[in-house]
C-alpha cells in the first residue's frame, strides 16, 4: 500500500504523464549519470546567487532541462541558444508551472533585445573561439542593465588533463581562475571568483578547481 504522502504526486504524474529529460541531459543520464548531478549543482549555485531577481537571460541553454532550477528562484527567464535542435527540444518540454521563454539567437551576432537584470552562461565560454570572445562578452554586457549581474561558469584549464576526448574537442578556450578574473574585470567593476569540485562550490585554491565561477557586478 502506498503511503498517504505519496498519493498526490503519484496521481498527478499518472494523470499528466512523466516528465522527460532533454537531448543532452538524456545523453548524460545514459552515458555518465553522475554528470547530471554536477550540472544541476551548477544551476543551483546560479539560482541562489540570483534569487529574487526579476528578469534573467541564459546564454547557451542547450536543451534547457536545468534552466527551470534558476526559474524557480527568479521571476522570468529568457533562454537562448544558436542551435535549432536544442531550442526545438526545449520548447517541446516547456512547463506551465515553471515557464521559460526559449529563443533561437546567436549572441555572437548581436545582443538580445530587451534589458535584463542578470545574465548567466554555464559551459559555454570554453567553446567560444578566443578571437570571438570579446564580441561574445560585449554582446552579453549590452543585454543587461548597468547594475546587472553576470555569472559565467566553465571548466578550469587545470581540469582538462582529466577531460574526455569528446570534451576536449569542443573545449577551445579553457582558462585558469586568474585569467578568467582578469578578463571579466575588463567589463565589470566587481568580479567574485568561486571554485567548484564535483558538486561542491568553495573559495579554495583556484588551480585545484575542476570548475570556475565568476560572479560579475556593475558593468564598466
Characterize the biggest β-sheet: 8 strands, mixed
Distance between the ends: 61 Å
Low-confidence spans: none
Q: What's the overall geometry? A: globular
DSSP strand count: 8
Summed up, the domain count is 1
CATH hierarchy class name: Alpha Beta
What portion of residues belong to β-strands? Answer: 25-35%
What is the overall number of helices?
8
How does this structure look, described?
The chain contains 8 helices and 8 strands. With 220 residues, the protein is an alpha/beta fold. Strand 4, helix 6 (133-141) and strand 5 (144-155) form a beta-alpha-beta unit. The protein is globular and about 60 Å long.
Map the helices and strands.
Elements: H1 7-16, H2 23-31, H3 33-49, E1 55-59, H4 67-71, E2 76-81, H5 84-91, E3 101-104, E4 116-122, H6 133-141, E5 144-155, H7 165-170, H8 177-184, E6 188-197, E7 200-202, E8 211-219
Parallel strand pairs: 1-2, 1-4, 2-3, 4-5
Antiparallel strand pairs: 5-8, 6-7, 6-8
Label this structure with key terms.
25% strand, Rossmann fold, 220 residues, eight-stranded mixed sheet, alpha/beta, 8 helices
Task: Summarize it.
This protein is of the alpha/beta class and 220 residues long. It contains eight helices and eight strands.
